[in-house]
Write a structure and sequence with these properties.
The protein contains eleven helices and ten strands. The chain is α+β, with helices and mostly antiparallel strands. It has a five-stranded mixed β-sheet, with helices on one face. Strands 8-7-6-9-10 form a five-stranded mixed β-sheet. The longest helix has 25 residues, at 139-163.
Amino acid sequence: MDNVTMARINLFDVLRNIEDLCEMDPESKALIKDENLGVEFNVPEVGSAVLTFKDGKCTFTRGKGKSALKLYFASPEHFNNLISPPVDPKTGKPKMVIPIFYNVFKVGFLLNTFTKLADRLSHYLQPDPAEKDKLLEDPEYFKTNTILTAYTAFYAMSEIANSDFVGKAIAKRMPDGVIACEVGGTDLAMNITVKDHRFVTNKGKVEAPRATMIFGDLQFAHDLLNGKTSSFTGMGTGQFQVYGFVEMLEQMAKLLSQVSIYLA
C-alpha cells in the first residue's frame, strides 16, 4: 500500500466526508453551529484542502483557500497518522499527532471540535465490530453509514486510479467517458469522469453517461459495499443493473477491489 495514495484518499476523500457528516448527523451539526473558521490542510506530495465552517454548515474545497488555521504536515505518513493514529504500545491508546500549525489562537478547534468530528466520522465508517450490527438496526444510522461508505468508495477510486501503481495500470485501459452510479429509491447518485486516463469523482446525476450502474436500493448498495453480496448475485436478482459500455464497468470493478485494500 502506497503512503502517498493513502494520504490522497485521507485528504480528498475521508476528510471530505466531514462536509456530509455535518449535514446528516445531528450531533456533528450541533458541534459546528457556532463555528466560523476555515482550516487548511497541507500535505507534501499530495496537495491542499480546506474545510470551511460557517452558518452551521461545513464545506470542503480542494486546493488552498481562505483559512484562519493552516496545518502543515511533514510527510504523507504524518498526515495519515492524524487520520488513523498509531497505537502507543505502552498505553494501548492512539498516539496524539500534532501538525505544524499557523495561528496558535485557533488550534483549540483542532484539539476539540475537529477531534470530536473525527470521532463521529469513525462512529459511522468504522464502528466497533461488537456494536455494529446493533447500530445498523437504526434506520437513520444505516442510511448515514451506507451513504458515507458509498462516497468513501467512489471518491477513493479516483485517487487510486490517479496515484496507485496498480490503479494507474487499470486507468490506462479506460477510455474517455463518464460512469454514472445511482441507488434506486434514494437521491444518492455519483459519477466518475475519465479523461486521458485521469479520474474525477463528483456527486450528482449526469446526462448521457457512457456507462451506468444502478443499485436496486440502499440495502443492496450497503451489502455490496460491505462484501456481503456480489454484483453477479445482484444481476441475477435484478438488484444490480448495468448499461452502456460494460468494459468501463469491468475496469471500475477492478478499481473497487483496490479500494478495499486501502480502506480495510
